[in-house]
Design goal:
Number of helices: 31
Shape: elongated
CATH class of the largest domain: Mainly Alpha
Distance between the termini: 46 Å
Protein name: STI1 domain-containing protein
Structural class: mainly alpha
Number of strands: 0
Organism: Eutrema salsugineum
CATH architecture of the largest domain: Alpha Horseshoe
Subcellular location: Cytoplasm; Nucleus
InterPro entries: STI1/HOP_DP (IPR041243), STI1_HS-bd (IPR006636), TPR-like_helical_dom_sf (IPR011990), TPR_rpt (IPR019734)
Radius of gyration: 38 Å
Pfam families: STI1-HOP_DP, TPR_1, TPR_11
């Protein structure tokens, strides 16, 4: 139950529904309160919603339950950073690195906790976090600017690198936005001298009563723009040129003119080395061209440069995911999916993205299939099956199971190995496992009659005589003269007739009824109001019972209950 709730929580978290994820993780914690992973996952979900106090509480519980698990300290550090407790965050990351010195997430967190904080510069802090867009949307003056693509693009650039704010100070819209974000008004009308009016020498006129007037709102003067230095002007111009090159590169990429796209992205990088999107875009082109080494090199540079510039974790994750995709392509030749799997896992520690998670699952599946292909050897499989047969004859069933299992690994399509292992499980009393192997036989080869006889025998031992009868009859469709199947049918008929005649001992009747009550078909019959009325009529209303007997569907259900010992014939 806890694992199921955890899986639901992980799925909700991956899709970005953190509130639902918290609900499922809490349910899992109630079922397994000592599972440290559950507290770790819920801490991450709380942090994603900026509920850092709860995230810290869960992170502390994670470390308390599993003090030697490095990821717990990563959660602890992230929560402390969210609460602006940077010293405590630094200590947490350092403790985690003592346990796992090569952990990239802990290294990145430590660098983040140790860097000079933006709180010394309120102008920089104003542009950080999602609250910026909420404030600009709420203010009537700046709300209209959000309809202008060039303004939105400018604000995104400032948010990405707030230290470049002075490049855009000539834009009156940016200054107005800054005032909204800082909750201040630039300039003002306070303290202005009021000019005296000249006295009027004419006699006072009769004053008409006036309606009270609302004071006119003061008009704020436009702020004086900051003058850009020549260096700032040049930097801004280079950034604009770089963006233009990027857009041309994007257009070439869509046209599949890859060489031209690479030229444009390269020029953009030369003009502006503070935007890693040029690197990740060029890496995407190399990936399309099959130049995987170049793609990986660009992705590594993007990750390294992104960490230096304190880029958004999503961009770092994007670069790592793209690198993983290139490694998957290379793995199809090298047969080594492990580097790709490790890279996708690193990407998920930066940002949990459903697309990256799918790529990870696909890579792990490909690795497993490759391992199975490399292990496939029909000759060894036959040798292992023969060894199992030898132990089976000696009645050493556990040893036989071991060899049959190895034969199945070596050749998963061999129905004989499944059939033989089913016989072993039957001898050992492991009927559910035997039933599973018998059904696998039929799944692999529907004409393999031995599979039907194995399955029917197990169902017979489980006292499911109706099901066993159906299995034997299905097998006879493929081999009508098969004596083993015919004998199985005969045994089932004897047991069913025995119940019909009421010849069961009290112990047999009780056992059969208990078994039948676990059968969903019997449960559905007994819960059906119509069938309950039919059963009552058979006991109390002979005339109505005669009418029911004309209905084949009703009689089939009655026969099922009779065979199960639920209804007895008198």
């Amino acid at each position: 139950m806890a694992e199921e709730a955890k899986a639901k929580g992980n799925a909700a978290f991956s899709s970005g529904d953190c509130a639902t994820a918290i609900t499922h993780f809490t349910e899992a914690i109630n079922l397994a309160p000592t599972n440290h992973v559950l507290y770790s996952n819920r801490s991450a979900a709380y942090a994603s919603l900026h509920r850092y106090a709860e995230a810290l509480s869960d992170a502390k519980k994670t470390v308390e339950l599993k003090p030697d698990w490095s990821k717990g300290y990563s959660r602890l550090g992230a929560a402390y950073i969210g609460l602006s407790q940077f010293k405590e965050a630094t200590d947490a990351y350092k403790r985690g690195l003592e346990l796992d010195p090569n952990n990239e997430t802990l290294k990145s967190g430590l660098a983040d906790a140790s860097r000079p904080r933006a709180d010394s510069n309120p102008f920089v802090e104003a542009f950080q976090g999602p609250e910026m867009w909420a404030k600009l949307t709420a203010d009537p003056g700046t709300r209209v600017y959000l309809q202008q693509p060039d303004f939105v693009k400018t604000m995104q650039e400032i948010q990405k690198n707030p230290n470049n704010l002075n490049l855009y100070m000539k834009d009156k819209r940016v200054m107005q936005a800054l005032g909204v974000l800082l909750d201040v008004k630039f300039g003002g009308s306070k303290g202005e001298d009021t000019e005296m009016q000249e006295a009027d020498s004419s006699p006072p006129a009769r004053k008409e009563p006036e309606m009270a007037k609302k004071p006119e709102p003061a008009v704020e003067p436009e702020p004086e723009p900051m003058e850009l230095t020549e260096e700032d002007k040049e930097k801004k111009e280079r950034k604009e040129k770089a963006q233009a090159e990027k857009e041309q590169g994007n257009a070439s990429y869509k046209k599949k003119d890859f060489e031209k796209a690479i030229d444009h992205y390269t020029k953009a990088m030369e003009l502006d080395d503070e935007d890693i999107s040029y690197l990740t875009n060029r890496a995407a082109v190399y990936l399309e061209m099959g130049k995987y080494e170049e793609c990986i090199e660009d992705c590594d540079r993007a990750v390294e440069r992104g960490r230096e510039l304190r880029f958004d974790f999503k961009m770092i994750a994007k670069a790592l995911t793209r690198k993983g995709s290139a490694l998957v392509k290379m793995a199809k030749c090298s047969k080594d999916f492990e580097p790709a799997i490790e890279t996708f896992q690193k990407a998920l520690t930066e940002h949990r993205n459903p697309d990256t998670l799918k790529k990870l699952n696909d890579a792990e599946k490909a690795k497993k299939e490759l391992e199975q292909q490399e292990y496939f050897d029909p000759k060894i499989a036959e040798e292992e099956r023969e060894k199992g047969n030898g132990f089976f004859k000696e009645q050493k069933y556990p040893e036989a199971v071991k060899h049959y299992s190895e034969a199945i690994k070596r050749n998963p399509k061999d129905v004989r190995a499944y059939s033989n292992r089913a016989a072993c499980y039957t001898k050992l009393g492991a009927l559910p496992e035997g039933l599973k192997d018998a059904e696998k036989c039929i799944e692999l080869d529907s004409s393999f009659t031995k599979g039907y006889s194995r399955k029917g025998a197990i169902q017979f031992f489980m006292k499911e005589y109706d099901k066993a009868m159906e299995t034997y009859q299905e097998g006879l469709k493929h081999d009508p003269k098969n004596q083993e199947l015919l004998d199985g049918v005969r045994r089932c008929v004897e047991q069913i007739n025995k119940a019909n005649r009421g010849d069961l001992t009290p112990e047999e009747l009780k056992e059969r009824q208990a078994k039948a009550m676990q059968d969903p078909e019997v449960q559905n019959i007994l819960s059906d109001p119509v069938m309950r009325q039919v059963l009552a009529d058979f006991q109390e209303n002979p005339k109505a019972a005669q009418e029911h007997m004309k209905n084949p569907m009703v009689m089939n259900k009655i026969q099922k209950l009779v065979s199960a010992g639920i209804v007895q014939v008198r």
